[in-house]
Amino acid sequence: MVSGNACSLPTMSATFLAAFMTFSVFSLATATNPFITYPNDFVDPQVALGPFGSSLQGAQDTVVAWAEEMNSHGPWSVTFKPVVAPSGDKHDYMSWAPYQWPDCSKVGNKTALSPAQMRKTCPYVFRDGEVNPDRNIPDDFQSFFNLSDAVLYNALAFSFQNQSSTVYSQNVVKFVKTWFLDSDTKMNPNLNFAQMNLGPSGQSGTFTGVLDLRMLAKIASGVLILRKRASSDWTKDVDSQFVSWCRQYITWLQTAPPAKQAAAATNNHGTFYVNQLMSLMVLVGDNAGATTLGRKYFGGLFKTQIAANGEQPMEASRSRPFHYRNFNIAGMITNARLLKYVDPTSNDWNTTSNGATIQTAVDFVMTVNPAKTQETNVTVEIYPNVAAVAATYGDPSGKYSKFLSSSGFPYMDDAFWVWDHPKTLASANAGANTHSNAAFLAVKAGWQSLFGVC
Ligand SMILES: *[C@@H]1O[C@H](CO)[C@@H](O)[C@H](O)[C@H]1NC(C)=O
Ligand SMILES: *[C@@H]1O[C@H](CO)[C@@H](O)[C@H](O)[C@H]1NC(C)=O
Ligand SMILES: *[C@@H]1O[C@H](CO)[C@@H](O)[C@H](O)[C@H]1NC(C)=O
Ligand SMILES: *[C@@H]1O[C@H](CO)[C@@H](O)[C@H](O)[C@H]1NC(C)=O
Ligand SMILES: *[C@@H]1O[C@H](CO)[C@@H](O)[C@H](O)[C@H]1NC(C)=O
């Protein structure tokens, strides 16, 4: 059980003490959502300090449950994969472009080729939307996603406990050291082999692979939380080694050809490039650089990404438009949060494109039915975006609150609710919650009347 609430037991009546115990067991047993890896986000470390009321208990429990789930998979390292990058260096990150398939019909082999021979010898052809299952063999991308979620959720779980060291802060340090710092397992600070093409004309990374490390924004959030809470596990030594890694990787991001191509992309690749580079700049303390970059994004690229009606034409034309619209919005929100963090006076949430803002883009996606494009399995991607917009712009008409409540998704028990809960929604939802169990509701009502703010 996390201890985010400052409720004092002695003021409870015996009746509600019994109810409290029932509530605790009940909420532990049922109030956590299944793990979802969201495309990206940045959590201002100030938010992680709380205080959190009891209405956030379900969300906090989910954060802890997700930290535990990620912990069961970690630690992660690029050196753990069963294949090695063409450099022959096991410290090189590698992922394969998803839609490429071997065509061995013209290579003239007399016997079957080994998988390694095939990947070098046979030309690869592009089949849009058809994922070659081989792409999961080098699972660095999946490992990095899990690492990023592990760092974010362990850091939050650590922060809930308000101590200088807990098992969660120790996990963050272990995971960061294994992936970035330890001599046996560290990743070289480059993406020379990310989303690489195979075959005789391939064997090097492509600009789309730069997207693989976008979740550095989650890692930055986690590390900033440990710094803010002065975790005794995040030592000066670990910090300076990690900063040094980040500086080297910043140089790669600013100079390597695929990185420059990603920076120049006008769609979500350009948005997420900014997420990544701003996060790294924040980590190394270059807030001025991050501010310049964030302002450049909102003053330039951003303005070309949203039409006046809130549609994002470059994402709408993709094979999975509901996903890509929400994906890019998540990137925009992350950029807005990062810019607000480095420059509290910035007004980036108000920056418009033809009068449209991030809010307009979310309003548009709220009208899109994901079933029309067979995308009901990614419907969840819209919920943190809607919550973030409601939290930032307010919800005077109650439309965001209504959208979330009528979705059937237990958003108040989701991890993002810890940092996306808007005061407006909290009051709009007073009395409402995602549990239908009558006993739970009765106990919760008693709990609220007893503790007021808790
Ligand atoms: C050549 O190698 C490919 C890949 O292993 C295999 O599918 C194909 O059957 C081989 N051709 C011959 C003639 O053995
Ligand atoms: C990442 O986490 C997911 C969800 O728990 C799990 O299914 C997957 O196996 C994990 N992969 C790695 C490489 O940790
Ligand atoms: C966190 O701990 C500090 C020092 O132990 C204490 O002063 C503070 O009140 C605590 N904060 C919360 C929210 O419990
Ligand atoms: C959703 O379904 C599509 C098409 O079946 C698939 O390619 C994609 O990986 C799925 N996404 C998730 C998050 O399950
Ligand atoms: C937009 O700008 C106005 C005027 O400066 C300000 O009151 C409001 O809070 C801003 N809204 C957001 C979401 O930043």
TrEMBL record:
GO CC annotation terms, alphabetical: periplasmic space
Molecular function via GO: lyase activity
Full protein name: Chondroitin AC/alginate lyase
Keyword line: Lyase, Signal
InterPro entries xref list: Alginate_lyase_dom (IPR008397), Chondroitin_lyas (IPR008929)
Keyword Nucleotidyltransferase listed: no
Domain Alginate lyase: start-end pairs: 78-367
Stretch forming the signal peptide: 1-31
Taxonomic source organism: Mycena indigotica
Highest taxon of the lineage: Eukaryota
